[in-house]
From TrEMBL:
It comes from Ruminococcus bromii. Pfam families: DUF2798. Coiled coil: none annotated. The chain crosses the membrane at residues 9-29, 49-71, 83-109, 121-142. InterPro entries: DUF2798. Keywords: Membrane, Transmembrane, Transmembrane helix. This is DUF2798 domain-containing protein.
């Protein structure tokens, strides 16, 4: 997980992009009733402005609130992966209604009922996508970008042995 602001920004940017793209594909598929090449292409058009919105919300506001909420049920001594899961769930619980509201205002005829319906359709998908696919995938990418720990020590030993 991120150890400084730069890493946090990179992690959030990757997570926002992957999460938003997946959710846009899902919503386009719901609206068109099919999944084909045009579904993925249509999603890229919305991604251009929805991903920055998600990044700004999560990086500056939601991430901090979600961490505070997660630590109301978790302790710092709990297993790090469970803390990560708790924070991820809290982020989904906050981001889903906000992003559903934004999408409702931008892409649908806005009303309270339409927003609630959009939120209700998105929430189960957002939680499952985050916990089972997007979250692990983005954490893998992050670990590949910011290698630390044993890998660095092993690489130093291998380099020293070659010299």
């Amino acid at each position: 997980m991120p150890k400084n602001k730069l890493e946090d920004a990179v992690f959030t940017a990757i997570m926002a992009t992957v999460m938003v793209y997946g959710m846009i594909v899902y919503n386009v598929a719901l609206n068109t009733g099919k999944v084909d090449g045009t579904t993925f292409l249509a999603a890229t058009h919305e991604l251009i402005f929805m991903a920055p919105i998600a990044f700004i919300l999560e990086f500056f506001i939601v991430g901090k609130i979600a961490a505070k909420l997660a630590f109301t049920v978790m302790k710092p001594t709990d297993r790090p992966q469970f803390i990560t899961y708790a924070i991820s769930i809290c982020i989904c619980c906050i981001m889903c209604p906000i992003m559903s509201l934004i999408a409702t205002c931008l892409f649908k005829i806005p009303s309270f009922g339409t927003w609630v319906q959009t939120w209700a359709l998105n929430f189960p998908m957002a939680i499952c996508y985050q916990m089972f696919y997007c979250g692990p995938f983005v954490r893998l990418i992050f670990r590949l970008i910011f290698r630390r720990g044993k890998n660095k020590e092993e690489n130093k030993q291998i380099s020293a042995e070659k010299d």
